[in-house]
Structure formats: C-alpha cells, structure tokens
Predict the 3D structure of the following.
Amino acid sequence: MKSTLDKVQEIKNHGYRLDIGEVISQTFDNYKKIALLSGGIIIVLVIIFFIVALGVGAILGLAINFTDFLTDYSVGNLSAAVLLTKMGATVLVSGLVAPVTAGIMQIAHNAETNKDFDFSTAFTHYKTKYFKDLFLATIIITFTSSAFETIIQLSHLYFFDYILTTFLNITSFIFSISVTLLTLLTIPFIIFGNLSAMEAIKASVVTVSKRFWIILLVMIICLLCGMMGIFALCIGIFFTMSIYISAQYIIYRNAIPMDEKDELDEIGSSEY
C-alpha cells in the first residue's frame, strides 16, 4: 500500500485529475452536513478570542478607542514596534487556532464517511500527536505570508513613493495569496497523511501547483459563497466560513486517495 509521500511523488510525476464541477458539488454536499455545528464552533472561538483579547489588553493597559482606531488608522502612523508586535501576535494566534481548523476538517471527514462527530471533535487535535506539526506548520506559513507585507509597511515609515508603494502593495498581495493557496492542503496532509510540518508544506505545494488555477477558481467561488453570510445580519458569515474548510478537505480527498484502513489506524493511534 502506497505511503502519502509515494502518492505525492506520483502526483509530482504524473499530475492528477481534478474536475471543478465535481469538487464544487462535493464541497457543498459536505458543507451542508457540518454548517450548523461548525458555525457554532466558530462563534464560540470568536467569543473566547474576544474575551482573551480584552483581558490581555486590560492587563497591559492597552485599551483602544475603537472609533478613533477605525477613523485614524493608517500604516504611516504605526511604529515599527507596533508592526512587528502585530505580526508576531498574528503568527502566534494562527498557530494556536490551527488545531481547531484541523478539528473542523476532522468533522468534515467524519460527516463524509458516516462516522460520529460532535462539538468536542473540533478540539480533538489539541491532544493528538499532530498538535506540534499543526502549530509549527501554521506559524511557518503565516510568518512567510505576512513577513513581506510587514517589511513593506516598515519601509513606509521611512520613505514614501506612490508608484513604488502601489507596486509593492500589489506584489505583497499576490505573494500572500500565492503562499496561502499553495499551502492550502498542509493541514489535511498532517492529520490524514501523517506527515511532519515541513513534509506537509512541501506536499501541499507540489499538489496544489499541479492544479493551481482550478483550485484558485474553486476557492474564489467558495469565498464568494462564504461572504454571502454577511447579508444575514453579518452573523451568517460564521456559518458560511466552514465551506472554505470543506473545500480544502474535498480537494485533498480528490487529489490523495484516502486508504480507510490506514487512516483509521492513524486516528486510533494519534490520541494519547
């Protein structure tokens, strides 16, 4: 039976079939099975994050006037220390939230394969052997994605040229989107493929690059569908966000044949 790395090597050599119509259809079918539960999980996560942020802000004496922030915010009035702190906090938070993303993806998989799942499934990977690799892979990806943008923002503190700034901002946006898309399958490669952080990142880059434009189109469609939640008093977006995770799972499932026996063995041996 082929290992995950063997399957990735085969993709690297020969590519794989990915039909956009089938992927979209399977994504929506999967999403309908997990929308309510995953939406509730995301709301709870946002509430917890908000409470923690307020607590940290109170402890550090960093209370912010949000009205002034929204009206006066600009890159130009941020200090280098604030920009670097912002990037560091973003990287750290993304790493800590990664197991929840993996947990919702586990829910998507369990729903697809008719296995049991509940609210606690979303937090399963905080106590599995995959936590370290999920955390490490996510902070590497987030740091890589945000570092270029932060460097550009830092440069704005010392010089400003409209044409150059516009060019650098567009370049930064394209770079960030490319990194995010190419590493899209990192989490499923860790929890379903049993790969280490770096192996999963490399495997994702290889797999996505073979069908880059199709996957980009799928994710744009899912993003637009997810944004429709804004029209439901904005609360609906919490229930539409998980379509993005369903799409990741379905793309992985189509690209990498999942051996049920091996996978069950891995899940069974991953908790301790």
About this structure: The chain has one domain: 24-269. Residues 20-60 form the longest helix (41 residues). Residues 63-77, 262-272 have pLDDT under 50 and may be disordered.
